[in-house]
Structure formats: structure tokens, C-alpha cells
Write the C-alpha cells for this entry.
Amino acid sequence: MEPLIDFEMADAPMATDRTEGFRFIRQHGEVFQAVDGTWVLASPEAVRFAHRNPLIFSSAKAFSSAGVPVPLIPVAIDPPDHVKYRRVLDRMLAPRVVNGMEDDLRAQIHELVSAFASTGECDAVRDIARLYPTQVFLTLFGMPLADRDQLIGWVETMNENSITGTGEPIPVVREAAMSLFGYIKQHIAEKRADPGDDMLSRILSLTGDEEWSDAEVLGMAFLFTVAGLDTVTGAIGFTMLHLAQNPELRQQLLADPDLIGPVIDEVLRIEPPAPTTPRVTTEDVEVCGVLIPANSAVMLCLATANRGDEREHPDDVDVEHVKEGHFSFGGGIHRCLGAHLARREIRLVIEEFHRLIPDYEVTPGAEPSVVWPSSTLHLASLPLTFPPAGATS
Ligand code: HEM
């Protein structure tokens, strides 16, 4: 028997310095059991092993406690059924589809940035990172942009009040979730009757073996709001924070726009918006020399795995040595379905921000910090100061 480690994720010092927070987790070893009984897989080898063995590390069992009345498709589906959903969803979010949305999405972020560009200041979280991912989701699903703030309200209420969920959700979370379900249900009914040219309509139009029930569509759409909004909010905030704090990197990027891909992936590597993902073991299994019994709750720590390779400076953004293959989008069969779209959203934000505001800094005196404990990592606010666009000096 391995000893229990006196460790709680909530105690990790994340607020202003994730490097310290992730070291706090990793110091306990590659694989260890925390006092609450959860096993933590913290090294790249351990996380990779779990990703490669989805039948031993079950997602279905892990997400069954989420208190949601419909299946979270496809994240809570184990093999063999998982592949039938992914086959459909992968083609709905292929790079070709994301390319087709680009002009519309670029115009939307341009409008958001234009709203404050001449003022000389903004809060990049409040004015961009909170708003834009929800607009993208509404665009993808063919739902009205006017509903943005209502949707953000429900999703934030759920995220802020539910820490990776065991037990019954508190009433305010249940209420927000029910409102969101009602909203999505109404659009499912409308689009069944009158399909449009959007992802939701395309899924509802599937026929034969591929046809989905309303409960399946609802579970998928609900998962998209949980998986694809807060995470992108986090990623946009962190990318802007690193660029604001590092004028040299920003200059490099302005001189060579192709660096945007490496910048995005390096920031995702060191600041993963989804730092952990849950699993439950279905049998006794040995990971990196440690025996984990069947039916154990396991947490894959993507954040520490990202900093565990043999790079010289794993804690720094290093665009010269980008390696494909960080864990921030997960891995194996459940690898993030929205990775192309998420990268595109972040790129469009940075390109349109730099078009109007190439020179900016974190507002002196502000200390951007993350909300913690939380199932996702994102900045609470990011005040920026810059020369007003259009002003003559
Ligand atoms: C930077 C932003 C994002 C990050 C960091 C992120 C991270 C992740 C991670 C770590 C997983 C694996 C979960 C697991 O193994 O249990 C995942 C899965 C998933 N993500 Fe993302 N995600 C992001 C954006 C998005 C977006 C924009 C969408 C939707 C448009 C999305 C939809 C999904 C879905 C549907 C899954 C489940 C895939 C499956 O189970 O096969 N994600 N994401």
C-alpha cells in the first residue's frame, strides 16, 4: 500500500503564479493518492498511459456524478460507443468548417475590440475573453447573438458554484442548468421544424444509423457550453497576459505573424485552462510502478505533465522550441474536439487586437490572478492600458 499524501488540489498556490502551483502538485511524485482518496497522475508517462487505456480509465464512470440528466456526449462515453459520436462530430468541426466561419468570426472580434480601442484602456477578460467564446458558440449552433449575455450568466453561475462535481448540485447551479437546458431544448425543437445552415441543424438532420435522439443532442450541446466557453476564455486571457508582460515576444510576433501558432501553443502548454481531467479505474492497474485499485477516482494532471519533458526551461514560453504534443487538449480518444476552433478563436483575437492596438501593457498596479479552486483556470480580470487608437501624438 502506498501512503496517502496530505494534499488537496485547492491548496495549490495558483493565484498569481501557476509555476509555483504546479510544482506544489508535482513534488509528490508521478503517481500518488491524495487524502481524499483521489489518485493523481502527474507525469507525462502516467497521463499518456491513461489516455492510451480508455477502457481501464473510464470517462463514463468519472462523469456520471456530474448531476446532469442527459449523457455528456462524447466526453462521458467509453468505447465502443464513443467512436460513433466522434465520427459525426469530427467532421462538423474539421478545419474546413472552421475556415468557412473565419470571416464572420473575425468581423465579430473586430467589433468587440473597436468598442474600446479609442479609450486607451480595457479589461481584456471582461471586454473580450468572457464574451467572444459565447458568440462563437452561438454562431456555430445558429442561435441568436442577442442571447449572449443570458447564456454567459447561466454558464458562469454553474462554473463558479460547482467545484469538480461530486454530490448534489446546489440550487442556484441546478436552476442555471435547467434554464440552459430549456434554452437548448427550445432551439432543438425550432431547428427540427425549420433547419438552418448550422451545426445544430446538421446534427438534427442525420438519418439512418447516424440519427441522434433529442436527449443525445441536448447532452452534446450542453457539453459544448461546459467545455468550449470557459476554456477559451482562459486561453485568451492567458495569451494576452503573456504578450502584455513580454514586449519582446510581442515585437517578435508583430514582425513575424506566423509565430502566432507557436505562441498560442506555448501559452496553452504552460497555462492550461483545463488543468486536470477525471477518470475512474475499471480494474486494478499499475501506473509508473504504482498499483491503483479498481473503482478508484483518478485525476489526470495535464498541467504538470505539460511541464514534465526534458526541455531546459519547461516553465517558460519558448517559441523556438515548440514541440507538438502538449496535453492541454487532452489525448487519446477524448482529445479535444474543439481544438481547431479554439486555436482559431485565440488567433483571431490576437490578430484583431494587434491590428488596432499593437502596443499595450498590464495596467500598473494591477495583479492579474486566477480564480481558484476551480475546475478550469482563467483570469478574473486583465486590465490593460495602451495609446488610444486613432489618437495623434
Ligand atoms: C483552449 C480551449 C480548450 C481547451 C484547453 C480544451 C480542453 C479539453 C480537454 C483537456 C479535453 C479532454 C477531456 C477529457 O479527456 O476528459 C477536451 C475535450 C473536449 N472538448 Fe475541449 N477544450 C477547449 C476548447 C473547446 C471548444 C471550443 C470546444 C467546442 C467547440 C470543445 C469541445 C470539447 C469536446 C466536445 C470534448 C470531448 C471530446 C471527446 O470526449 O471525445 N473544447 N477539451
Remarks:
- The first strand starts at residue 4 and ends at 5.
